[in-house]
């Protein structure tokens, strides 16, 4: 196992770069040993954190100045029962690998599929559990953690526990969505989902304003398993909240091969300036809104790849934001106020001159999340990307945050780089239940920033 100081671990938004003492274990035993000083007498261990593929936009998977255990070497499949769909893997296995190994179509097009997947397949199993990620089918299948049957957790006191809803149930619920702070996930067992056809029927519907979005969501949530809308953040007045509503569902008898393990093309280098500017964002938004030409609706049957993972087509797309990177902001607004509050947020963005290029609006469903700190809950979730322009971007994000707090909403740690401690504390009522399960040897940039743990020294 190698252990060295490295400066190349940063946030996916490329705003935060930090120096870490990195270890890359290749076995579960080796990973568990990284947590204790037993085989390294005299070594005072710094606070530690596990990390996966680094696809979190902010500092939730970073531990600046501390130790980072990069779990991608824990990449073994342990067992897959093709009759029941129960899959056990080490924590560093990627969702792309799971799709490739376990999700091939049978002769009739049916097959096993990840029950829930985020908008990128290039995340690890451990990362998906630690952020209790959600996908476009939240309203039908809840969060990733709802499908975790057990997980193996190593802690700095030397313990190694199998956690389920029956064994160590509180630690299980703390670890799902626990931001990596309860210990190191070594492996997990999940229940895959059987679909009658791996291919999907997908529809895009252009709509003219926010009221239409809510009508489409109400109409679609019953019959369409995957739903989300792209919003044109530059639109104002009567067009405020216009966009394209995308919905999809599996089609019996139609198979689809798993997507590739790597993107076909990649952005080769970081340009000296951001390609996402005050000029290009409105141009992009206007062009995207008209992508279907004169048609208001398009329909196709094909692979789920384009529906689930549009951004995965281009590797390292985060580089287009240039040397200063970008912030992502994802909030959840409670149902009773969501119409007014989403309109208020979009209005603030449209008048700020800092429109977001990739803005996604979705309604979360009623499925409760198993984790004490899971982000999803009923209501609307709005996701936005902003190039980092320094103070003006921070000011805008601060205003959006205040609106979310006043609405009784919350921000998503996996997407966050600036949230105030008070916002986190107000947004997560499960926090007091969670605190006792933090492993005292663990820390992260996020945990310190929102006062989940105290700054050392
Ligand atoms: C293009 C794109 C689209 C996305 N779409 C969505 C989406 O639709 N829904 C959604 O919910 N998220 C989404 N995300 C966010 C992403 O799914 C999460 O941030 C995910 O947790 C990243 O996993 P990772 O393997 O990269 O882990 P990292 O980002 O490296 O780490 C994430 C967290 O997991 C912890 N962790 C990682 N491995 C372990 C381990 N073995 N043991 C304990 N803790 C561990 C880390 O400490 C950290 O807290 C998206 C991200 C991108 C880049």
Describe this structure in words.
With 457 residues, this protein is an alpha+beta fold. The protein has two domains: 74-195, Uridine Diphospho-n-acetylenolpyruvylglucosamine Reductase, domain 3 (2-Layer Sandwich), CATH 3.30.465; 200-426, Alpha-Beta Plaits. The protein is built from 13 helices and 21 strands. The chain has an eight-stranded antiparallel sheet. A five-stranded antiparallel sheet has the order 5-6-10-8-9. A four-stranded mixed sheet has the order 1-2-4-3, with no helix packed on it. A hairpin with a 6-residue loop joins β1 and β2. It is globular and about 70 Å long. The two termini are 30 Å apart. The mean pLDDT is 95. It binds flavin-adenine dinucleotide. Flavin-adenine dinucleotide binds at residues 12, 49-56, 60-61, 71, 91, 118-120, 123-124, 126-128, 130-131, 133-135, 179-180, 184-185, 311, 414. Flavin-adenine dinucleotide is lined by residues 12, 49-56, 60-61, 71, 91, 118-120, 123-124, 126-128, 130-131, 133-135, 179-180, 184-185, 311, 414.
